From TrEMBL:
Highest taxon listed in the record's lineage: Eukaryota
Protein's organism: Boothiomyces macroporosus
The name this protein goes by in its record: Small-subunit processome Utp12 domain-containing protein
Family: Belongs to the WD repeat WDR3/UTP12 family.
UniProt xrefs under InterPro entries: SSU_processome_Utp12, TBC1_cilium_biogenesis, WD40/YVTN_repeat-like_dom_sf, WD40_PAC1, WD40_repeat_CS, WD40_repeat_dom_sf, WD40_rpt
Domain Small-subunit processome Utp12: 749-851
Residues in WD repeats: 92-125, 134-177, 178-217, 361-401, 521-562, 563-604, 605-646
Coiled-coil ranges per UniProt: 272-299
GO annotation terms (biological process): maturation of SSU-rRNA
Subcellular location: Nucleus, Nucleolus
A GO cellular component entry from the record: small-subunit processome
Origin organism lineage: Eukaryota, Fungi, Fungi incertae sedis, Chytridiomycota, Chytridiomycota incertae sedis
Listed transmembrane segments: none
Keywords from the UniProt entry: Coiled coil, Nucleus, Repeat, WD repeat
Length: 880
């Protein structure tokens, strides 16, 4: 009989305020901020410390965030970029490595992205396509800025290869390199003609941009030897700062202030003095100087430290925004320790920055090392190096925070009102293992001091606690001494056996009543980190740092099965009560669900982005809680979705093959590179901003299938039109089942093609068109001719037409059979574009009239006198 299992799915994730994988940015109002939360982005209310909303689309980790007004761009570790615009998500796929930096241009119409794959890509946010891919850096791109000052069209990028490059977007090439940096370039910022760069050597450099030189076009080859190209970016000097660590981020706030953050606990705010202040400073210098001395202003006179903010932990990123008043500046500090802080500066007075608010309660500062559930599974306790937090498993809210030592293990006492925690500073060494006894009257602990100790619960009178109620306590009454450090302890549910994992790689089993030795379980190559006993006390599982899980029988101590469970150390294992199913958690960032009877892997739960340290399974396996190095706690809930093991294996293999296909290098190589005798060309500075993804490949297959359907239906409709001439009552041809299922039974075949094209994301459309073989390109051109003739979606049809003509120009011009189709498209396109031009011209003229009326400050309605009749002079507007 085929065994059916129930699937576990991620229900909620909590405990992350701001992960260190990405930067945090202010929202446009300055009172809220967008912070990375592993695979999602959270909008926090900084004053109330509450979550406003959460943005998520995908399972990859966020790596960088950029904002322009209501547009929020987020880069991910899989190379994708998502843009949220009031809930609408646009996806860009072009990078083959994590996105490291994002920047909008001054109008928010274009987005530049840099990646660890060394490429810089410029995206059109409106058209949702990639414009250019710039290649030239030899290492990870750390910062890039689209610069359109003085109507120029340039992009400046910095990289870990120590270079700063200036790209001419119009000429599609690099026009200048800055090679003065001695270390990796980590930060860039541009304000007017000022360029600030921060490098790994800790220096903050100021550069002057010469826009006249930058505007000059490339020199002809004939004049290249005689002419000398002037540099457009010149070094002004180094700005002194307190921090000696490498510069991580630079942010401008208007023309007067900018902030600098290093790889430490400091944020330095600098002030740029205006002309009046510089004149006063120069006059003061002249007054102090001797008569014969020439006085000049130095860089330190023009730019000086205005204020510094020192935090208690290392800063991951920061952002600047306007305060409630014009003379106030707000600073957002995003800590690496999962904290957000909001500071406020008074720009008129040099006073220390004031801490307005801090969000730190909904998360731990360090790794979560232990988890435990209450008896009713309503409460979840988590422990880290300095605190214990109690959470609600229903909504993920933090109920209480308790200070403690370095927590290693924990358990709720019967009743769920008390919690006991084992720390590093306990007994004569750290307590590595703890369990409540089956009779609920006591507990057992295992420590590094080579002892297992038994405690009884009781109530004692304590005046410091209460004069009326008694305080719960644990009284030590028995000790088992061993030869090695104790790493884990477990008591069988029937209360007869005690299992102890030792540092000598063995597990010793004792009778709990007499503490006599019963069994020795050996076979692991590294210490056992965790173990558990089934509810019928017949099977024990042991999880070890040797990546294996072993299943033992408690009757004779025989090893039933040794499973290579994970790709790294297995840190936790636990049975589901009443079954032989168990869960394991590992440093390979995964949780696995196993069947101890069949020795099969049932499913794998992926979602954490760090080593998983702790695991807690609900009483009857309704849910599983896990905690990781990424500081998140995740609840995996059992669903009603049932599956068979063989189907799950096939699905996993198919997903693995798909991932390998997308990652295959053949998709990134030039066409014809596999032919014998192929000579590799020099690397290009510009390449198409595309990347093969599983979604783009599926979109190509969908379009190819639609073209086959259109070709068949088009032939049937042409035959039907011929039949109607002789027989008006002829039956219409049957539609394809896929067309009917799409709800387009009454639409023409061309409208079905348009429906399929519009269902493909604009960022994937070009990739989908590239997957079509040439005979289907011909079919698509024939379809486009009919779409243009029927005036259906002119913008989309012309966009596809232009792309096909560019990509297949040589093939189309050399195919004679296409000549009538191309000529027909040419005629129809001219007519269509003329109509569109007339519509646009009419709209532009109408908008001009509305603009003129707005400038006059008065709208004229029917029956109202015009300006001349009211005795007012009519304003003349010159239209350029």
């Amino acid at each position: 009989m085929v065994k059916v299992y129930q699937r576990y799915k991620l229900q909620k994730s909590f405990g992350v305020i701001a992960s260190s994988s990405s930067n945090a940015v202010f929202n446009h109002d300055g009172t809220s901020c967008y912070a990375p939360s592993l695979e999602s982005v959270t909008l926090w209310n900084l004053k109330q410390g509450t979550v406003i909303k959460q943005l998520q689309d995908g399972n990859s980790q966020t790596t960088c965030i950029a904002r322009y007004k209501d547009l929020l761009a987020v880069g991910f570790a899989d190379g994708s970029i998502r843009i949220w615009d009031n809930g609408v998500v646009t996806v860009f796929n072009g990078h083959r490595a994590p996105v490291t930096c994002l920047a909008f241009d001054s109008k928010g119409a274009r987005l530049a992205s840099g990646s660890a794959d060394t490429d810089v890509i410029l995206w059109d946010v409106v058209a949702e396509i990639g414009l250019n891919r710039f290649k030239g850096h030899k290492d990870q791109v750390t910062y890039q800025i689209p610069n359109s000052t003085n109507n120029l069209n340039h992009l400046i990028s910095g990289s870990k290869d120590t270079l700063v490059k200036v790209w001419d977007i119009t000429a599609e090439c690099c026009v200048e390199n800055i090679v003065s940096h001695r270390g990796e370039v980590w930060a860039l910022a541009v304000q007017g003609s000022m360029l600030l760069t921060g490098a790994g050597d800790g220096q903050l450099r100021l550069w002057e941009i010469n826009f006249e030189n930058l505007a000059k076009k490339l020199i002809d080859n004939a004049q290249q030897e005689s002419a000398e190209i002037e540099k457009s970016i010149e070094l002004v000097g180094n700005i002194e700062k307190q921090s000696k660590e490498r510069v991580m981020s630079i942010k401008f706030h208007s023309d007067e202030f900018f902030g600098v953050q290093g790889n430490d606990k400091l944020i330095e705010i600098f002030k740029i003095r205006n002309e009046q202040e510089l004149k006063k400073r120069l006059a003061r210098k002249k007054k102090r100087a001797k008569d014969d001395m020439e006085v000049e202003l130095e860089l330190s006179d023009k730019i000086s430290v205005f204020n510094t903010i020192k935090t208690f932990s290392k800063i991951r990123s920061f952002d600047l925004a306007k305060g409630a008043n014009k003379n106030q500046l707000r600073v957002l500090a995003h800590h690496s320790s999962n904290i957000l802080e909001l500071y406020q500066l008074d720009l008129d007075e040099k006073e220390p920055a004031k801490l307005i608010s801090s969000i730190d309660l909904p998360g731990h500062r360090t790794d979560i090392r232990t988890l435990c559930l209450s008896e009713d599974d309503e409460l979840l306790a988590s422990g880290s190096s300095d605190m214990i937090k109690v959470w609600s498993t229903k909504n993920g809210n933090c109920i209480q925070t308790l200070e403690s030592g370095y927590a290693l293990c924990s358990a709720f006492l019967p009743g769920g009102k008390h919690l006991i925690v084992g720390t590093k500073q306990a007994h004569d060494g750290p307590i590595w293992g703890m369990q409540i006894l089956p009779d609920k009257q006591g507990m057992v602990t295992g420590s590094q001091d080579k002892t297992v100790k038994f405690f009884k619960f009781g109530l004692i009178e304590d005046e410091n606690y209460s004069k009326i109620a008694k305080r719960a306590t644990a009284v030590h009454y028995r000790t088992l001494k061993l030869t090695d450090d104790v790493l884990s302890v477990r008591v069988s549910p029937d209360g007869k056996l005690l299992a102890v994992a030792l540092l000598d790689l063995t597990v010793k089993v004792f009778y709990i009543d007499s503490l006599k030795f019963f069994l020795s379980l050996y076979g692991h190559k590294l210490p056992v980190n965790s173990m558990d006993i089934s509810s019928d006390s017949r099977i024990i599982i042991t999880a070890s740092s040797d990546k294996t899980v072993k299943i033992w029988g408690l009757d004779f101590g025989d090893c039933h099965k040794s499973i290579l469970a994970h790709q790294d150390s297995v840190m936790q294992c636990q049975f589901v009560w009443g079954t032989y199913y168990f869960f394991t958690a590992s440093k390979d960032k995964t949780i696995k669900y196993w069947d101890a009877e069949k020795f099969d892997e049932i499913s794998k739960l992926e979602g954490h982005f760090g080593d998983i340290w702790a695991l807690a399974v609900g009483k009857y396996g309704n849910f599983v809680a896990s905690a990781s190095h990424d500081k998140s706690i995740r609840i995996w809930e059992k669903t009603d979705d049932q599956f068979v093991l063989e189907e799950e294996r096939e699905a996993r293999l198919e997903q693995l093959y798909n991932d390998l296909d997308v990652q295959d290098e053949k998709y990134t190589q030039e066409i014809g590179s596999g032919v014998e005798g192929y000579e590799e060309k020099e690397s290009k500075q510009l390449e198409p901003a595309t990347k093969s993804t599983m979604e783009s490949l599926k979109s190509g297959e969908l379009l190819s299938e639609a073209l086959v359907i259109w070709q068949k239906e088009n032939e049937d409709f042409e035959k039907y039109q011929q039949m109607v001439k002789s027989n008006p009552d002829a039956a219409k041809p049957a539609r394809h089942p896929i067309v009917i299922s799409s709800g387009l039974k009454d639409k023409s075949p061309e409208e079905y093609i348009l429906h399929v094209v519009n269902s493909i994301r604009p960022s994937h459309l070009n990739d989908a068109l590239l997957t079509l073989p040439f005979h289907q390109v011909i079919t698509l051109l024939e379809c486009l001719a009919k779409l243009i003739e029927k005036q259906l979606d002119p913008m989309q049809t012309q966009k596809i037409l232009i792309f096909l003509l560019k990509q297949h120009h040589n093939e189309i011009t050399s195919t004679r059979s296409l000549k009538p189709v191309v000529e027909r498209i040419q005629t129809l396109s001219r007519k269509q574009l003329k109509n569109e031009r007339d519509v646009i011209g009419y709209n532009v003229y109408s908008l001009g009239i509305l603009l003129r009326e707005k400038k006059q400050g008065k709208e004229s309605y029917f029956g109202e006198p015009v300006a001349e009749e009211r005795g007012e002079k009519r304003k003349r507007i010159v239209v350029k």
